[in-house]
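Researcher: Go.
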Amino acid sequence: MNSVAQTFAVAAVIVVNAMAQDIDTALVGRSAKGYTVLDQVEKPEERRDFLRLRGTADARRRRDLADTFLSRYPQSWLLADVYEISSKASIDLDDFPRALADGRMSLRFLPENALLLVPLADVEAQQGLLEAARRDARDALLSLDTFAGSSALTPQAWSELARKLAASSHFVLGRAAITEALRSKGTRRAELLAESETELGLALPTDNPEAAYLLGLGKLVQAKPAQAASEFMAASRTASVIRAKALDQLRRLYDAQPQSSNSFESWLAGIPEPARAAAPPTPMRSAAAPEYAGSAACQPCHSAIYNSWQNTGMGRMFRSYAPDHVLGDFRAGAEIHDGSGRWTVRVGQDRQPYFEFAAAGETPRRYPVDYVIGSKWQQAYATRLNDGRIQVFPIQYNALTRRWLNYWNEIDPPGSERADIARFTTLSAATNYQSNCAICHTSQLRATGDTSRKFELATFREPGIGCEMCHGPSSAHIAGVKSGVRSTQPVNFAKVDHRDGSKICAQCHRQSSLRDQGPKGEMNYAPAELFFTDFKSRSYKEFSRRAFYKDGRFRETTFIAEAFTRSACFRRGQAQCASCHDPHPVNPAGNPVSLKFPDDPDRMCLQCHAEMQTRIAAHTHHRPASAGSRCAGCHMPKIMNSLSFQAASHQIDDIPRPDMTERFGQQESPLACLLCHADRTTQWAASLLQAW
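Model: Structure:
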């Protein structure tokens, strides 16, 4: 068993027992809900069969049970897990074609699964599928960099497992590089040898004699026998199948030397330890207060951008009440009733708008609207209590349908505390703005002390999403401009790579983000030197199944960044959010989604895929001017739920998959073709696409 296989010898599907998370609440720390993902499987017999499968140790029996499960429950929510179990069982059985086929099926549902990506990459490298091995190993590293551990594991256990997974990924990349190097010549060989040395060096923090052995081979190719001997000696010190191969290489090096009076054993004893590069120090979050100047400080030099930003959805995300900020019709005296016909809440207008709640057996309680949340399609409202808590009303106004609705009742699972209108008057943490909403709706949010209500009483520097939430703390930059001394600038998106640029947007547009408090209670910001602090994400498998279609794609717009980072445009290319969006456009009122090219949306794709410009009809099989020839029509179909309308999927490279729609149906695997051709069938689409 090689070193990568050893990492997974006892690996099991762990996340189905992990605590689940609702789909619209920000997470501070590692909190979770009191139910598991497995609880969401409705059929008792399906849960029973899955648990039986997962608890089976014998690889052949495990794969047989997986086949039975797939036959009985072809539309199960657990398909990603079952295909993963079958793939790993096939690896244990040395049935590599089946392992790769089942592994690819599992990754269609959950492409971020590092626990599967790494062993698949190892198999691919062994089978000579070097490009596939590199792709899966790099995707595994990206996932490990993105996700926190499963809540089914302790932080320490996950940290150790993640360390091994990362080392195994680097080992696969190093092996792929040196394998190709041995087939190459000249400059290309030198580049690949340098790449392999870097990757294999990163694999060595774990006990990996194969990495040392391959480093030794690389040194031999470079005609560096002394360094090769050091690496082979390190590989020979571990009791593994590599030991004999390493000793054989050492014997060859010894025999190739001029005759010496030293015995082979004496020569071995004199071989020094291999030189290893020191690991870079881990940056520590500073306890110093970040130097934030506030958005108003940007206006004197950037007035046009500042004025545009003020009129965007971000600039107007959270505002104190003013008559012209309100979308809802409070004059109508609208009432919402319970099942018995008794009103439970009604709206009205006095000196300012208010909500009035009817608590059973009590005098109705009235709360003024002190804040509005949102300014485009839907608007929520909040009231401020005397102790500083801000509570969000469950009733929101939808400007598209011109109606009031119980928003949380629309999106929460049954039994949700905050969806029960009658319980609003308890003013609990469930409806608290600072705990649930402010991380993404206000700037520089800070928890207050160590009280039990430190999140509920959190304070913020300014409402809405200010300039420095995206560009970083600017006090030093402003001081430098005023004094004429060049200083470090805030983040310039033209000068950061696509991953860092996307991370900034993902602070709010990534539903799965976890936030850890800073030393001063910082909840959504960091000092200048750590502005790119990586907030980890909760595993997607730990979210309510309502967040996804059964084919694995994201259903809810709160997961827009998660969908985008699945795209080949991001993973293989250089695309970032700013490639298509301008957060302070010229005409924000006429461009509510802040498109970079609102009058020519195809240009967002053609700026990279320029070759398509001259062969649109040949590519789309539709007339160039028709809706069927718009890039987004097929590659960004409108399938993400935004409550009152369907938004474009941001899994941009997604192509129509009739096989998934055939398996799950249009409701659980919407096919882009059938969104326009609703009178046609999946089989019709499949035959056309096959002909294309």
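Model: The mean pLDDT is 88.
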